[in-house]
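Annex B. Sample input.
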Amino acid sequence: MSIVHSDGSGQFQQDNATPHVSRVAIKWLQEHSSDFRHFHWPPKSPDMNIIEDIWDALLHAVEKRSPPPRTPVDLLTALQDTSGWRQNREIRDIREKSGNFIDLEKSGKSQGNS
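Annex B, continued. Sample output.
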């Protein structure tokens, strides 16, 4: 983490999936805990990493194309042609939802703190 955030501002989040709580992973986290802040992830919380939601939105935009892309070049073209996807309402909603959740998390309200 210190390579990426040499100023000590790195934050680590994980969703407690089985691979993330293995003995090896837990040991590594304990050994490197001074390198970053572990971001609390409440049980059954929404995904705080919006990239999966964005990939899903892009997938749906590409799937709507007719004919569908059949080669890597076709896929790249389809992704580039997905006009204005950054301004897409769905993407804006994803970003807003994630931002609101992170604001709650930072304030401690999602942890039951007021």
